[in-house]
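User: I've been going back and forth on whether these two constructs are worth ordering. Before I decide, could you fold them both?

Assistant: Sure. I'll take them in the order you sent them. The first construct and its structure tokens:
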Amino acid sequence: MPFRLADVKKIVRKRSDGERYLHPQLLEGVGALTQVSLALAYFNNRLGRRRSDFDTETLVQIFGDARLARGVVSCLAATYQWRNHTFAEVLEAQNVARLLSRGIATSSDLRLHLFDAVNASGSGFLAGARGEALQPLARRLRLTPAKLDQLVALDADENAVLVRVREVPTPAQIVAQYSFAVIDAIVRHSSHLELRRLTADERSILAARCADHGVPLTWAGTDARLHNVADSFGSYARTGFRLSRSLYIALSSAPGLARDAAALVRLPASHALYKPDKTFRDTVTGGTGRILVAGPLPDLRQEWERLRAQRGVAGWRLVSSGEPTLTRAGLVVPAFSCQRGDERVMLWPVSNAEQGAHLEVLQQAGIATLPITPGDGAATIVAALSDRWGGDRVDAAGQAVEALVGEAAARGFIPEAEVLSALNYATPAEAAARLRDLPADHGTYIAGLGLCSPDFVATMRRGLRRAQRRSSAA
């Protein structure tokens, strides 16, 4: 998600020429990599935990600045996401089937069922204490009161749990994404962008890209000015997307376009100039020097909607993903992606050797990409997507157990109440049933006690043997 200008940490200084200049503060050096490593460790440790248990203040303490913390969290949003559990993830299969037979598939269905039951038996009001009143309803559904309480609020925002939907990025990748997002935010929020001393080829390329995206362009000799347009609230961010996209696509064909550039940025009480330095291209490409631009698919949206209405699209959703995205392959400017479950696949038209080379770079970087050849229609795309990608949801419960096992290894022992909270189990009996097959080298769950690491179990056993020997000697 693009940064807000207010979330960009920056310094504004006035120089001898009377102008105010904006200097963004990027994450740099070994210290930044260490900070990001700590943030990644915290996210991995919180997998499976509810949003209400996530302490954002911890991240602020790691980075020492709320804006830096928010920026890093935004960069991690493609990897870590908040998601509500489904009934199938917190219930045994037979319980899911039993609720489905009553027309109850979601928390909303369950709440309506309970409302109907209360209206039928109590004129819309619970008689007595809530817990006592809900017990007969829970028994009727063959659920424990604790499990009923959990299911009723399973879709609440505060009960969403943290899941990892992508491979864990390296700290260096997050630092690069943060730096790009900062520069991108400045470009998007500028009232205009000047590119000076352009060659004839550069002027031709820039004019074509600005025309493609409806960006006003004026000239003063060989100098170009790309104009942004403020919305009714005075913000340039909405139309700034077109300006930044035009710039990046032009840079893909004319790498030297921004060698002498300046952006005028409107601040709350004034304005300031931002002058990209010689590292600008390295920053926006993550050090790769590559900007990969997907070819257009002008008729795909209409054809996709027709197919969806006539035959269905196997659960895939077509996403207009025009947001420039920094990846391990470089800066990617896509046209469309398709999403099902936690799987997201970029569509990449291939009609010439250059586009084929770009596709190879993307695939070698591990980015899920589907080549689209001339003549491929929506039906062909859906079939290829379903054949190569399952579109399943990630195993949130498995990730939660993995994170808790790692925490137990570090702490030695985690009390039962914390285990129930971390794994979203309603009762100790549920925890015992679901953790009974936990491998011994991962840990041991003891009902009424908690989760013990292998080292902790070994220590307890040695202590018990010593106690037995002392007892026998006595």
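The second construct, handled the same way:
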Amino acid sequence: MTFKQLVKTNCWESISSIFLKIYPQASENIEGYKMVFEKLIVIEAERIDISIVVTKVKDQEEEYFDVSGLHNNPKNEEEKYSQGIEFVPWRKWLGMDISRESLIDFSPQEIIVHCLYEMTFVSFKEEDIHKKLKK
């Protein structure tokens, strides 16, 4: 299942309450997340050979969620390890598979929430994300 398929089979109403439960601090920007979610519904996906991996991380001081990309068919040693994907264009996010482990450990709505949070970490606008990457 791709991220685009996951997005298309859900609606904002099924996402928003879960979003605020997982990330209560996001309440001040909830309209921005909604705007991005609605944009993802209409953006054409670009298939990419990477799977989205969502994991719950517990260290000594805190608990948080990590969203990264893992190459399905690594071509070199670096591609065997998780990659940061926060600067990846949204059309490519939509073309990524969701890892089997993530689909087992999280509900579809939770996966969407964690991905939205990660992909908007820099900004709610792709143009701003691209500018930040260029710097």
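Notes on the second construct follow. The chain has one domain: 3-134. Residues 33 and 116 are 7 Å apart (CA to CA).
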